[in-house]
Structures are given as C-alpha cells and as structure tokens.
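Example for tutorial group B:
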C-alpha cells in the first residue's frame, strides 16, 4: 500500500532536519524495512514535508516501530524539529519537490 504523509518542520530547524536525514541510523532503516516498508521518500517545500511510503500495512508498521528504542530516540529527535509530526494525506506529492531522504 502507498501512504502519503504531510509533516511540517519548524522554520528555524530546517537545516537540522535535512542534516539529520543525511545520517539516519542504519539500525532504524533496518527496523523500518523489517516492519514492511519497501520505499520511503520525503520531499520538502519550505517547511512543508511530504512523505510517500510503500508499506505492507502502515498501522502494523507504526505499532512495530513504536516500541523500538532506536525509533523512540529518533522520534524524540524529530519532535524537537517538527511543528506537525503526523498528518495523513490521501493525496500524493509533486515529485519535483526536493528529495530529503529515501529508503
């Protein structure tokens, strides 16, 4: 299934957000893949972030990841950088947006 998410980075933390996604821990990417995600792309337009995931079951994936220490630490780090953490969107995003990270 494809899932599109819209999040929003704090205007004063954009550079930190981009930098963090150049160094996503391998343990976290392995856990995301093990939880059923085959692709995850994030585009950023200003402070708006658009995520598109290819995942077997989104709710099962989030339930699996929420208990893992590496994800708990990552989510705490992201909470410091984001204004909007999760915002479901049924629509995809424009592929012309700058890619921030791909899995």
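The residue assignment follows.
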């Amino acid at each position: 299934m494809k899932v599109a998410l819209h999040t929003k980075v704090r205007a004063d933390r954009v550079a930190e957000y981009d930098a963090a996604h150049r160094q996503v821990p391998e343990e976290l990417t392995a856990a995301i893949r093990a939880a059923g995600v085959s692709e995850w792309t994030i585009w950023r337009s200003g402070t708006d972030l658009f995520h598109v995931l290819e995942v077997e079951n989104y709710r099962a994936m989030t339930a699996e990841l929420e208990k893992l220490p590496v994800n708990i630490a990552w989510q705490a780090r992201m909470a410091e950088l984001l204004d909007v953490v999760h915002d479901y969107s049924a629509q995809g995003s424009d592929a012309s947006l700058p890619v921030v990270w791909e899995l």
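The longest helix spans residues 69-81. Compare this with the pattern of hydrophobic and polar residues in the output above.
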